[in-house]
Amino acid sequence: xxxLDVDEVLANWTGAVLTRLGLEPEAIYARWAVEAPExxxxxxxPNFPVSAAEAWGMINDAGAEFWSSLEPYPWAFELFDAxxxxxxxxxxxxxxxxxxxxxxxxxxxxxxxxxxxxxGARGEGFEDYLIGPPKHAVARPGAVLIDDSPRNCxxxxxxxxxxxxxxxxxxxxxxxxxxxxxxxxxxxxxxxSVAG
Length: 196
Description:
This protein is an alpha/beta fold. It has one domain (about 1-15, about 70-195): HAD superfamily/HAD-like (Rossmann fold, 3-Layer(aba) Sandwich). The protein is about 45% helix and about 10% strand. It contains eight helices and five strands; from the N terminus they run βαααααβαββαβα. The protein has helices spanning about 15-20, 25-35, 50-60, 65-70, 75-85, 100-115, 150-160, 180-195, and strands at about 1-5, 90-95, 130, 145, 160-165. A five-stranded parallel β-sheet has the order 3-2-1-4-5, with helices on both faces. α7 (about 150-160) links the parallel β4 (about 145) and β5 (about 160-165). The chain is globular, with a radius of gyration of 16 Å. InterPro entries: 5'(3')-deoxyribonucleotidase, HAD-like_sf, HAD_sf. It holds the Pfam family NT5C. Belongs to the 5'(3')-deoxyribonucleotidase family. One of its GO terms (biological process) is deoxyribonucleotide catabolic process.
């Protein structure tokens, strides 16, 4: 079983947040890589111009639409197809604490992945997803998580699964951010062949 993260793996959450805050994404990305290369959380970049509380307030004020309108990355469907080619694949996403986050995430998955009918599909659309914060709860031998968070990856592996850190501006694999599938897909194929 493959568990595929959504934000920063399939959907451009960071770019949307920075745009919502009135900041230039590429300028922040460049600064982030130089000034805070070990920092995963955008709001923990030193001297970030907006407090985490203010930023989350602006995101929450946008409601479900903020989440449902995130742009898929150019590789989103190719990655999902590559995952499905080697094993059953489930989108696994953590909502914020605001209730509109889960609603918006579900709308995003239905809009962009509705063409993939789930295993138990009854015509309602895409069903292969889980929404919840404890991603490690589904970890087990033979399960693989693809996620941009080093913390989520470590917890998943500590609970018996295998994790692949997806290249992102906020992690040590940022050098592969422009072509993440070149490193992730071979690692996935290798992990699934070992698990199988």
